[in-house]
Amino acid sequence: MPWGEFKDTAAERRLFQRRTVVMLLLVFVLLSLLIARMYQLQVVEHDIYTTLSDKNRVQVQSVAPPRGLVYDRNDVLLAENRPVFSVTLVPERVGDMEQTLAKLQGMLSISEEDMERFHRRLLEPRRPFQELPLRYDLNEQEIARLAVHRHELPGVEVSAELVRYYPHSELTAHALGYVGRINRQELQRIDPVNYAGTNYIGKSGVERFYEQLLHGRVGYQHVETNARGRTLRVLERENPVPGEDIRLHMDLRLQQLAHELLDGRRGAIIAIEPSTGGILALASVPGFDANLFVTGIGVEAYRELSKSVDKPLFNRALRGQYPPGSTLKPMLAVAALDSGAVTRDKTIWDPGYFRLTPGGRPWRDWKRGGHGWVDLTAAVAESCDIYFYEAAVAMGVDTMHQYLSEFGFGEDATLDVAGALSGLLPSRDWKRAVHSEPWYPGDSVNLGIGQGYMLATPLQLATATSVLANRGNWSEPRLLKDIKGDRSIDDVLPTGNHQSIELENSEDWEYVVEAMAEVMHGSKGTARGAAKGAPYRMAGKTGTAQVFSLAEDEEYDEEEIRERLRDHALFVGFAPVDDPQIAVSVIVENGGSGSGTAAPVARAMFDAWLLGFPEEGEALVVGSSEGASH
Q1: Residues of each annotated binding site
Q2: Penicillin-binding protein dimerisation domain: which residues (predicted)?
Q3: Claim to verify: residue 318 and residue 233 sit in the same structural domain
Q4: Which residues are catalytic?
Q5: Does position 619 have pLDDT exceeding 70, yes or no?
Q6: 238 and 257 belong to one structural domain
Q7: What is the CATH number of the domain that holds 147?
Q8: Is residue 27 domain-resident?
Q9: Residues annotated as binding site for Zn(2+)?
């Protein structure tokens, strides 16, 4: 400012006022914009951001339903659920997966097998934010250790879940089956809504067949979570609907007895209640521990089971297909009588061999010198092969196929038994299609004693025997007895479609049944030793199935043959004769003779069911092996 000029305070005041007004206007405009934005966020877009906020804070979690329980006919628990604590990871919430896994390995005992299984599950298709288990069955110390370090492990949780447990595992593994973790193929076919939160599904047996009934209906809960995704509290919950509890026809006492009777030998026993078709026992020995498969069996344990020469994983009762041998003779006797191929009075001379043509190949009888003159009753009681050779040729394959199919051979005739095979009931068309050959008379000769191409499962033999016990009336085999609840069994049990077998002369049923009773009680019956001293009458038929063929003039010497090449021992029967309560089929692999090995086993099953089970610690008596060797 030049010297002598005075400061213009009025001008400065006006300048200041103008600047103040501009700043106030600017502040007002900015404040207006802020208020407008706040109005937009809190009023106009309130619902949108409330929803987004709740999605960060509140999550919907599925709640798996408790699986239905399985009981035997006496309400003994066969399959239950037990709580198991496991460490799980949600990959979407884990920052550094490898670092997290390394920390967990430092805190817990995690095997390489567990780590490999976890990495496999990590690569498999799965639901978003699904918990992946790393290790099961944590103890209290491990749970406490994880709780202390919980803040260092985002995405890691200790989960409590109900896991299937089989208290009588080895006894029931082949009948009940087992559950296991849902795999990729199952994930594609199940209802993703109802199985949200469910990690396990029935893999075999009853668990698989009645999966929908046992699974139940999924529930939901709204939970509040923190920034790390951990649950703080449950805001709302819709409880799941538990699966239905079911009761089976099976009697655990009879099932246990069947395992004890086989005594570590390879074989199978099926027991059926003829009046209902209810399966009282379904034993395949050796068995296995089904609990190993629930949360995932280890590689070494599975290799040991799968490589075992005794094949414990193989269900012999349902999937073992064996030549039925002479156990087929009662059914063929019915066919021969009804078709007119034989009569009750027809007798033949059995010299110990049979020829289709003079000078042709001889088919031998099991009894080297033959049985002499025999009628049909003696042929069944003494298991005369020659009589059935002639009857089979007289009937022909078409007649035999028709009658045997009516007894349930060549099909899975069960209502609810998962995994049962159909065996093989040969016919002209089958042989032409498979072997490109016609059916020869010699094929009929073999079929007449249950050999050749014919194959049947122990369950099919028990089914056919039950039809015989019912005098031709069908009650398809079933495991389910009833449902513990309001739901009707008719809603879930398939309907049988087999017609009763009608004979020209219904008295033929009694004739064949009495012939089977002669097997057990006759002076020359092949299983008379097994029935000795019984206070009731039983009907049965022994059988022997060759594992390999003998040369024409070769003698059979059991002691010179390796154990696993010996004949299979078979037996079918029912008791009592006049009011059948139980029908049984028995096969003992490489057991030798049906009369000496299989028949005493069936007698013990009959005694237990009809007279009472042995007391605990009481010696198990399986009867005498006295009698014929066939």
Answers
A1: 350, 365, 371, 384
A2: 64-234
A3: no
A4: 326
A5: no
A6: no
A7: 3.90.1310.10
A8: no
A9: 350, 365, 371, 384
